[in-house]
Amino acid sequence: MSFLDYFKGKKKNTANVAKERLQIIVAHERGQREQPDYLPKLQQEILEVIRKYVQISDDMVQVEVDRNDSCSVLELNVTLPER
Amino acid sequence: MARIIVVTSGKGGVGKTTTSASISTGLAKRGHKTVVIDFDVGLRNLDLIMNCERRVVYDFVNVIQGEATLNQALIRDKRVDTLYILPASQTREKEALTKEGVERVINELSETFDYIVCDSPAGIEHGAQMALYYADEAVVVTNPEVSSVRDSDRILGILQSKSRRAEMGQDPVREHLLLTRYNPARVEKGEMLSVGDVEEILAIPLLGVIPESQVVLNASNQGVPVILEEESDAGQAYDDAVARLLGEEREHRFMTSQKKGFFSRMFKGG
Predict the structure, then answer these.
(1) Which of B142, B146, B147, B202 would you mutate first to test chain A, the one with the most A CBs within 10 A?
(2) ipTM of model
């Protein structure tokens, strides 16, 4: 709180800050919770296979599972380096 | 068949044992035969809160391992005669609680009791998972504070994936939010998450709001479940929560600050 705020009698509403931070982290953690347990390992192995041919960094392979009512879709995104 | 209620939170120190003591006492006071089990192996404390620490002879682990019968281990409450306490072991490893062992004890208790209240240890490890595994209902104790709310959401995830009901594909565990240590004056100043904020984030039905109160410490000092402090705000808030748990409709109280008038400021020193 700044010197001026003190005289204006204004205080920062920290509860709102808490709420916003919580909404973001909780949504993020719920998203992870719904992913199957094998996903990190799958991602790691795919990364290793690709590295046999091209050098890429960890964040260039993204694996996600989208679940619908009747089926799940495994979405695999690989970014290759520019040559 | 008994109804099995777990009192859980993830985070420690939010009021699980206080809540277990009050909810079990409240259920028993209404004539339901109730047992409250301490699952916190190695850090037994429910006995102190219930004022029976000097009457513990055998414990939960003794019963699981066949070293004592349930009747030898159960302690009958001296205030409410339909209430029994099954204390945790103070000396054993947490792993002494096996799924099969816990199931056997719960099944045996189910034959004679109406309600089984399971007081969970903090954390999300073995002890906490054993406490919630057989639950039909869960009271998720939360403080209006960031780490507690996040941990409550984590424990909700575990209830939805690792409880017996989840594993067997049965109806899900019924979840209830119990907000404790609530300070309406600080909420009004924008210094504390409001009931509405926490409900919105966790998205489970509200069982009750327990105001932050000096009565809680005074009661635990003496081993009195705070629900027996019938004149106090916290005691009445717990009584409301128990009534709602039993399906009664009760309006929420103690959610706004009591503004002190000029005279009470003058005579009570602020």
Answers:
(1) B146
(2) 0.85
